[in-house]
Amino acid sequence: MDETRRDRDAEGRARNARPRDGLGRPLPRGAAGVERQPEGVVRTPEETVREAQRLLDAGMPFHAHEVFEDAWKSGPEAERELWRGLAQLAVGLTHAARGNATGGARLLRRGAAALAPFVPDHPYGLDVGGLAGWAGELAGRVAAGEAAGAGPVDAAAEAPRLREPGR
């Protein structure tokens, strides 16, 4: 492959074919990476939540964000903010785990705000209020940790539970 040319997919869109680590960071070509999440997969809400939770539990919030992004782009208009907010929480956790405390805290708070309208409805058994609370609490700890010189958070240890207990 000509290294001076950009990687392209079958439709000609720019795609970076470099391997990635569990937090979505590019690795050197030829390095062993984590399998990438396929893009544009249409899942049921149940499948979306199940797959995203699996990825979050594995310490792969960047990949969980891609699952939520697929739901956001393919789902009904009335649910787009729900899935977008969940994607922002996953990206916020990704940034916090990469050591970007400012970006992590900002995205966690933005995601929590996007979820606020869905709290009363508990769509798909999601613990929306609990997720918003988790995001606000983690954002505060991440921001305080940055001020104290703390490093990145452990994505798997900080992974939220998406569903209400017992669901």
Low-confidence stretches: none
Percent of residues in helices comes to: 40-55%
Strand-and-helix sequence, N→C? HHHHHH
Q: Which secondary-structure class do the elements indicate?
A: mainly alpha
Distance between the termini: 48 Å
Number of strands: 0
Question: What does this 3D model show about the protein?
Answer:
The chain has 167 residues and is mostly helical. Helix content is 51%, strand content 0%. 36% of the residues are buried.
Blueprint (SSEs and pairs):
Blueprint: H1 45-57, H2 61-74, H3 80-98, H4 101-115, H5 128-148, H6 155-158
Helix pairs in contact: 1-2, 2-3, 3-4, 4-5
TL;DR of this structure?
The protein is mainly α and 167 residues long. It has six helices and no strands.
Structure keywords:
167 residues, single chain, mainly alpha, 6 helices
